[in-house]
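S.,

As promised, the tryptophan run. Input:
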Amino acid sequence: MKRVFSGVQPTGNLHLGNYLGALKQFVELQNEDECVYCIVDMHSITVPQDPKELKAHTLDIAALYLAVGLDPKKSIVFVQSTVPQHAELSWVLTCNSYTGELSRMTQYKQKSHGQESAPTGLFMYPVLMAADILLYDTDIVPVGNDQKQHIELTRDLAIRVNNKYGKTFVVPDGRFLKAGARVMSLDDPTSKMSKSNPNEKSRISLLDPPNKIKKAIMSATTDSDGVIAFDVENKPGVSNLLSIYSALSGKPVEDICAEYEGHGYGDLKKALVEITVDALTPIQQRYNEIRPSQELVDILKDGTERASVIAEATMKRVKENFGLGL
Ligand code: AMP
Ligand code: TRP
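Predicted complex:
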């Protein structure tokens, strides 16, 4: 059995792209591997956060994870700041990283762009991420493609420390989420569905009510030739709707195209509204039950305990190898 680790930032809501591109795959992995899923609240404070909102979002995201099917009996689900070894290991790794390699991280360059002086936390972000991963002797890290560079840095740091201080860390591999699982914006199907798009109708959030889902799908951009066919290059809008349909229903795209041969886009959209509402309703029901419950807090506390056992063992090894402590 391999150890899987992934981290998610505590944001209040998730959209269909997050669900099909990440969460659904996290849920599938827990049947084959030993999974550790961490809500990375310490990563969030690299940019200013409202304290009340941050705490609420941490619980929101934990509840959503459980609602989509993460099973706390199979997986460890916990909050990063409740296991202090993340910060502790982050310092040790900081002392083994170089400003040059951190300056080359594209996410840092994008986020600090145009600022004369950027927050140090933004600069150190990838080292904290490496600490998250290495703390759990992780074999596999399922993440989006945008995290590739951070995974490379994590591997470099692990190898560097192992060479210098003797075998300390497992060198992890990234598992980059399937390209086919990319969900595109409903208003502009050439760009990715994203929480930062100001147009609300560009995305479907997992907690959207049926009328909002309906509005977003019925107004989705298509094209004018009226043929239901999968052709990402020439028919990106219709192809996106077909991909979502297929992912939510489990039907192959070809079967859906055959079923809707001769029909207009309106028919396809109406069916997609129904399928989406059917897929999200049970998730929303579970979410509404779990979110205000004591059970949620208890699950996260149990996660902290189980994560701590692994984290303490790793830190003990790190301290021994580095000559830290008595
Ligand atoms: P983000 O909140 O954008 O950092 O994304 C969190 C996770 O969801 C990452 O693993 C992304 O790869 C995935 N994700 C975000 N947007 C999409 C999308 N439109 N399609 C597929 N996966 C996505
Ligand atoms: N940086 C990741 C993101 O923005 C989140 C993250 C933090 C993470 N620590 C991690 C992902 C460890 C995987 C493993 O998506």
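The CA atoms of residues 17 and 183 lie 5 Å apart. The longest helix spans residues 294-322.

- D.
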